[in-house]
Amino acid sequence: MSFELIGKHEKDARASRDAIVTTLDELMAADPSVCYVDCDLMGCLNTKGLWKKYPDRALQAGIAEANAAGVCAGLAATGKKVFFHSFGTFSSRRCYDQIYMSAAYAGLSVRVLGSDAGVTAAFNGGTHMPLEDAGMYLSIPGATVIDACDYDQLYSITHGLADTEGVSYTRFVRKDVIQVYAPGAQFTIGKGAVLHASDKDVCTVICSGIMVDEALKAWEQLAAEGVSVRVIDMFTWKPLDQELVIAAAAETGCIVTAENHNVTCGLGAAVARCLAGSRPTPQEFVGVQDRFGQVGPQDFLMDEYGLRAADITAAVRRAVARKS
Amino acid sequence: MKQLNVKELNVLAARIRLETLRVIHSRGFGHVGGSVDLAEMLAVLYGAAMRFDPKDPRWPDRDWLVMSKGHAGPAAYAVFGLMGYYPMEEAYTLNHPHTRFPSHTDRLLTPGVDLTTGSLGQGASTAAGAALGNRLDGRDSRVYLVVGDGEADEGQVWEAFHFACAHKLDNLVVFLDMNGYQLDGSTAEILDHGNLPGKIAAFGLYTQQVDGHDVAAIYHALEAAHAHTGGPSCIVLNTCKGKGATFAETNHAHSSSPTEEQWQQALAAAEQALDAAMKA
Fold this sequence. Notes:
The structure holds 2 protein chains of 2 kinds.
Chain A: H1 17-30, E1 34-38, H2 42-45, H3 48-53, E2 58-60, H4 65-77, E3 81-87, H5 96-105, E4 110-115, H6 133-138, E5 144-147, H7 151-162, E6 168-172, E7 193-196, E8 204-207, H8 211-224, E9 230-233, E10 236-238, H9 242-252, E11 255-262, H10 267-278, E12 283-288, H11 298-304, H12 309-321
Helix pairs in contact in A: 1-7, 4-5, 8-12, 9-10
Chain B: H1 6-25, H2 33-36, H3 39-49, E1 64-67, H4 73-83, H5 122-136, E2 143-148, H6 155-166, E3 172-178, E4 181-182, E5 185-186, H7 187-191, H8 196-203, E6 206-211, H9 215-227, E7 233-238, H10 260-279
Parallel strand pairs in B: 1-2, 2-3, 3-7, 6-7
Antiparallel strand pairs in B: 4-5
Helix pairs in contact in B: 1-3, 1-4, 1-10, 3-4, 3-9, 5-6
């Protein structure tokens, strides 16, 4: 793993979905066994070029996610490396039993890509807002679950997925994301990225996806107040980097998790389960507090659901106050 | 296809039926009705039509069987055992702890099972995916998919038919086991399909309907299905749920828990049927 933080909190001119498009193109060119199945959302992922370029392997399954998931499992059974995309709501809820039984239970590898993570579904509204998608995949034995934050992370991770066996689920944002990492960043699936750490840290913020930039802003605010915190980009929710979580708990004494997801079943829950079993630690949960999504601009939704740097700094103060 | 030998296929069907009963008898209860009714179809597939190697169950050039009505696992275990994928007796451990022979077919456990099934409707899609994958590889392997008529309540079956036709999967042959019964009663009283073969044909599958207990009729329908190009085929089998299992043949039960006396009666009748087929 090697990366450089940009730290300017500026939007990337590149659409992060194109990290997936480029990777798929590279993988499909190099390996004739790579297939990509979509459910009438190639226009949203910007993969119509792949459809043209690889007409036999970039496949349309239409607006029928359950069948599409099963087709992916069948392709995998014939030795294909399969990527499957739909919006996060439909690539989880709409085909869960198919991914669970036809793929995961059957020992077949399908790489599921769920776009418009959490509140980034914005103007498509609550019906299209996946706040439990990753939680559903966390419940599948052996699955890999990822919440990616920017273009370069998505590029590195998508390459890594090609060699990841079993069912994986990667939620991501299609465009207009803050550039967190400099080009060329490389990530290892299953390992958290430590973005800030010192021996003065009094708390650790464990975050992923769009919450990484909020956590970095929170770090700056707290640093200005003389409060030092550790920040970890835990883009892999499962398998969780337990060693890193436990070490952070031991060294900083309290934890704040920050996720663009329902806190009942996501990153915070996974971290809490890890710590409860080995090192009980005060923890505060920033994320969607067991609510449905709703329509509106992403900025409004992040305020509405408490997904801001200010929510993280407040949670850090609560967590530190709970230390015995 | 091998040349048609009606007597040979009838003997194989009788063996499959008898072994299916023995497999389920080893547990004492199970999905008898919808398993024994497939004996003739499986006899034609494994006795005359399919390309397979019991010593190399995942042989890349094989034909595939996807038992989407996964509860008919015991019938598949019977035919696999008879073909030599494993000693037949090993399957007399159905649903015992750590068995390789669970109620519903599982590709990770049982040699001969190509795709895992159990949640109804799902085998239709995985079979379509396997047909597509074989075509991408340039293989002439066929995928034989077995769907129940009760299973056709599942919308996924129709999504898969739609997909298979749109992608012109003519290496996919569907058997629709139309035995007229599902768990709670007849398909007509549960959720009437109306004209089920007609609906399948309307989706675009080349559809034939035959007596599902007539090996010659199944054989000839398969020949026609193989000759059909440009899209998937369907052979609707008119079957009797419980065929040849004395305790299930009249009540068409989805699952049966017969007494040992009833089991012995059914096993004896199946042995007699095998004798009769051999003497015919």
